[in-house]
Amino acid sequence: MKRLVYLMGVLLWLSGCASRLPRSIAQAPAEPLSVAQVQKAPQKYVGKSVRWGGEILEVVNAEKHTDVLILARELGSKGEPVVDGQADARFIARFPGFKEPAEFPEKKRLTVSGSITGMEIRNVGEFSYPYPVVEVHESHLWPDPRPVDDYRYYYGPYYGWGPYYHRYPWWGYPYWW
């Protein structure tokens, strides 16, 4: 009985370490392809598996599928699009069935893995733009990055505890003034 309790504890502890990130998103493909490469020779890459990500530009629902138009960005080590990363090109992530557009708000970061099915020409303003189409197998919508606090902290009996917002600590008023 004791062994069972210990085993359950270890399994519970290990499951806490497990990632909710799909494996195809977390691991880079063996042969990475960029969106720009596929735009130049789309027929050469039909059926190839890719992992692409970036910022959501638009969601378009059709009768049998949903297209999410994405501005591709370079990906970090775990597949997360880099916030200010270099923009590669645009692509379409095609999901089967209906997807609620509110689930994919503009400017959110999305990473998809799937296979290239071809190319579609759509307009960006007045310009005809070739979009590679990826049939999505797995996807991950990333949370907004946390802002980094650039505050310095002061500690002491005269100035109290907490941040001073880019001011010198002696600008505070100690108790004897």
Count of helical stretches: 3
Element order: H for helix, E for strand? HHHEEEEEEE
Q: Which percent range fits the helix content?
A: 10-25%
The radius of gyration computed from the alpha-carbon positions, rounded to a whole number of angstroms, is 24 Å
Beta-strand portion reads 35-45%
**How many strand segments?**
7
Lateral strand order in the biggest sheet: 1-2-3-5-4
Secondary structure category: mainly beta
Main sheet makeup: 5 strands, mixed, barrel
| Measured distance between first and last alpha carbons | 69 Å
Low-confidence stretches: none
Overall pLDDT level: 80
Broad shape: globular
In words, what does this structure look like?
The mean pLDDT is 80. It contains 3 helices and 7 strands. A 5-stranded mixed barrel has the order 1-2-3-5-4. Strands 6-7 form a two-stranded antiparallel sheet. Strand 6 and strand 7 (162-164) form a beta hairpin. The longest helix is centred in the first third of the chain and has 16 residues, at 2-17. The protein has 177 residues and is mainly beta. 15% of the residues lie in helices and 40% in strands.
Q: Quick summary of this structure?
A:
The chain is mainly beta. The chain has helices at 2-17, 23-26, 35-40, and strands at residues 49-61, 65-73, 87-96, 109-124, 127-142, 152-154, 162-164. A five-stranded mixed beta barrel has the order 1-2-3-5-4. Strands 6-7 form a two-stranded antiparallel sheet.
Task: Name the features.
five-stranded mixed β-barrel, mainly beta, 15% helix, 7 strands
